[in-house]
Design brief:
Layout lengths: L2 H10 L2 H4 L4 E10 L5 E9 L5 E9 L8 E7 L10 E4 L5 E9 L5 E8 L1 H4 L1 H8 L1 H4 L3 H6 L2 H7 L1 E7 L10 E3 L1 E2 L5 E2 L5 E7 L7 E6 L7 E6 L3 H4 L3 E10 L2 E8 L8 E7 L10 E6 L1 E7 L5 E7 L5 E7 L10 E5 L6 E7 L5 E7 L8 E9 L2
Antiparallel strand pairs: 1-25, 2-3, 3-4, 4-5, 6-7, 7-8, 8-9, 10-12, 11-12, 12-13, 13-14, 15-16, 16-17, 17-18, 19-20, 20-21, 21-22, 23-24, 24-25
């Protein structure tokens, strides 16, 4: 055997080069694009009737602007085709962001989001990012943000629909917020793990609804000792791993890339008490957790360092340890992520996220349909 062939053979006997891929990507496609407009931060839910519904912040001018709206699209063929966007919330003179969606036990759709005045509070930094021509278009919105309007509109929100999203009840303010909203427990309780307060900062609390999203109460909080508070845990998501046992996952926003690992905490009493968050081996953010039919926990997250794109991994022991990282899709730049996943009827996975389809465009919603191979 020649030296070149020997080297090639040696390389092909290593798992890094020749192992069978752990996943099969079936398709990657755009599911919503608004030419010249910016889309971000989606969440997807698979309803009991099989319909897929996704919500996001759409019809935006930029990543930061006053024009964000909570919009929804739907699919009745397991993600092959999607409807045109439907605007379900557009509070005046303020930015509607980070929509989450969950189907309650009674079939009601519960959508969550938060509103931001960052565009008005940081005009100079926005001007440096986008230029005067863009920021000058915000003058009416900024002028409309009186102290009274800020008090009324700034905060965390939820809204319900009892007819599959055709009509919506009046929105009500919430105590916490997180990008992917609440999750349903086996007993029908809706649990919402998020950052409390209008600044989306600490503390981390779990709020619950036992009436399908009509009313909410605080059940517990996640302890963060002073030495870990500097990591700025935020944008959490949770999942029930078995009845009464909850897994919480957290983004770190410390400002230091080497520290931006996903952290996990656990509750054995349905969220009344929690362990202190501990670091995983997963670098990326923010987390979205899904319990698969076989009991495994699927974690979806974005990766904003090279190679940038969307990632996922699996825990087979209720979040105590995590397996290898799967690459779902690469992206042209680091303005990406917030992936969320559902399991389809055949056991395959459908993950949606936002990013550029092509360099030079604004962001859109994309989806990767994939399956685990082992």
């Amino acid at each position: 055997m020649s030296r070149a062939l020997a080297i090639m053979f040696a390389m092909c006997t290593t798992a890094a080069h020749c192992a069978e891929p752990a996943i099969e990507v079936i398709s990657t496609r755009v599911i919503a694009k608004q030419p010249g407009r910016y889309i971000g931060w989606p969440t997807i839910e698979r309803r009991k009737n099989g319909e897929l519904v996704a919500v996001f912040s759409g019809d935006r001018q930029e990543h930061i602007c006053p024009f964000g709206k909570v919009q929804m699209i739907r699919s009745n063929d397991e993600g092959k085709t999607w409807s045109a966007p439907q605007t379900i919330q557009d509070l005046p003179a303020i930015d509607d962001r980070d929509a989450g969606i969950t189907e309650a036990a009674d079939g009601a759709l519960v959508v969550t989001w938060f509103t931001s005045t960052y565009f008005a509070d940081h005009v100079d930094s926005c001007r440096k990012m986008y230029g005067e021509a863009v920021v000058s278009q915000w003058k009416e919105s900024i002028a409309a943000l009186t102290p009274e309007t800020r008090t009324k509109l700034r905060g965390n929100w939820t809204v319900r629909s009892t007819d599959g999203g055709q009509t919506w009840e009046a929105p009500v303010k919430m105590g916490v917020t997180a990008p992917h909203g609440c999750f349903r427990l086996a007993d029908g309780t809706l649990a919402y793990l998020g950052n409390a307060g209008v600044n989306n900062d600490l503390p981390l609390e779990l709020h619950v609804s036992t009436d399908n999203g009509k009313s909410w109460s605080r059940r517990g909080s996640v302890p963060v000792p002073p030495e870990k508070a500097r990591l700025k845990f935020c944008e959490p998501h949770g999942v029930e791993t078995s009845p009464g046992k909850l897994l919480g996952l957290f983004r770190v926003e410390s400002g230091k890339a080497e520290e931006q690992f996903v952290y996990t905490a656990f509750s054995s009493d349905a969220g009344a008490t929690w362990t202190v968050p501990e670091k995983t081996n997963i670098w990326g953010y923010p987390p979205h957790a899904l319990r698969l039919k076989n009991g495994w926990i699927l974690l979806s997250y974005g990766r904003r360092k090279a190679p940038v794109g969307e990632r996922a991994c699996i825990s087979k022991d209720e979040g105590k340890t995590w397996g290898e990282e799967f690459e779902l899709c690469r992206a042209p730049n680091s303005d990406l992520g917030y992936p969320a996943s559902v399991e389809l009827s055949d056991g395959s996975i459908y993950t949606i996220y936002y990013q550029l389809e092509k360099a030079g465009e604004k962001t859109c919603l994309m989806a990767t349909h994939w399956r685990l191979k082992n």
